[in-house]
Amino acid sequence: MALIVQKFGGTSVGTTERIKHVARRIARWKALGHDIVVVPSAMSGETNRLIALAREISASPDPRELDVIASTGEQVTIGLLTMALQEEGLKARSYTGAQVQVLTDSIFTKARILRIDDRKIRKSLAEGCIVVVAGFQGADSDGNITTLGRGGSDTSAVALAAALKADECQIYTDVDGIYTTDPRVVAEARKLDTITFEEMLEMSSLGSKVLQIRSVEFAGKYKVKLRVLSSFQDDEGEGTLITIEDTEKMEEPIISGIAFNRDEAKLTVVGVPDLPGTAYGILGPVAEANIDVDMIIQNAGRDGTADFSFTVNRADFTRATRILESIANQMKARGVIGDNKICKVSVVGVGMRSHPGVASLMFSALASENINIRMISTSEIKISVVVEEKYLELAVRVLHKAFGLEQAD
Ligand code: ADP
Ligand code: ASP
Ligand code: MG
After folding, report:
1. Pairing relationship of beta strands 293-300 and 257-273 according to DSSP bridges
2. Assigned domain for 398 exists
3. Fewer CB near the terminus (10 Å): N or C of the chain?
4. Residue of 71, 136, 155, 210 to test ligand 2 pocket, by largest number of atoms within 8 Å of CB
5. What is the pTM of this model?
6. What residue owns the CA closest to ligand 1's atom 20?
7. Do 306 and 298 contact (CB within 8 A), yes or no?
8. Which range of residues forms the domain containing residue 92?
């Protein structure tokens, strides 16, 4: 008998029919004798709807109140799913994050989990219940409701699995595992049986929203056995296992996957005096405004000035532009140029460490389709490029082919 945490994403609980279907799947696992903790997300589209309602009232909603609203989607699904399990003749009990208690810090809308009290869950499990815990939410030490950032139910599930020392954490979604790239963009994408934590961390941080990055961090830190599976197939199969050790394959692929992110924007301060302190002078105020900066490039010109470019999340584009415009005046720069029609495409793979030539293959593949590279950044196991957004899908497809990632026939 094992203790298993099963998370069901928004589309998996998108209708009452789907919720009944999920309840039947859980019943099958329970019948095998396992203890089950279930973590549902809100019904698909619900969190967006709730946030949009808040924005109809206020253009910049109070984050504490936004969390009060956004967290309710999961309160609905824990109740519905628990009832559906009871209709299957099973004992089941729901808990909100605050009831459990999932203790978080007080950073509303992107709170971090500090501690999970497992007593109520263990008591209900001992009574033979399936325990249904709301994803995405917790409470701070003052009892304020908090949420964990978009996609945060993945993190709730992994954190619960870590706290309960579960044998496995299963993330059920609308695809049957992790693919070489988003199968909705490249039909030939291939399902991976395993992927290393390191690679999954990069894939998530570079835009693959199939797992929230914090859930991968948690799983790596607490050695949680993490698996991604489909809730839509009758037989869920083995899905994709996120492995802690690099699996010692004889022929390790150089590239495991391609990630992309559409939510990018680029800003350039043109003609700033090329002096010590320039980078700090530009990025200091941006950091103070809590805007995350990703890629950074500085081109020194010949006339004692430099162009300073960086990328931010597209949601922060307008705010960042305003900040730069005021700095540009003070710094006697020539101006500020912004572009929010860009995206980032990245190739990821631990095999890259021992294989030179990945960058040149990537650049030649993009050149063959006349795709202009606007920025480049590299690390040991990834290369990212910024390209115009209109080339995103073409770039992903051409790279997928160039690195031989398609389905084997
Ligand atoms: P859920 O609602 O279950 O949390 P998400 O929409 O957050 O589901 O994540 C699943 C989606 O992630 C898939 O439908 C797929 O389009 C997308 N995705 C992006 N990259 C990948 C990838 N490499 N492998 C599988 N799915 C991916
Ligand atoms: N319902 C939340 C969201 O839409 C959390 C999740 O789905 O994981 O972001
Ligand atoms: Mg998700």
Report:
1. unpaired
2. yes
3. C
4. 136
5. 0.92
6. 182
7. yes
8. 3-174
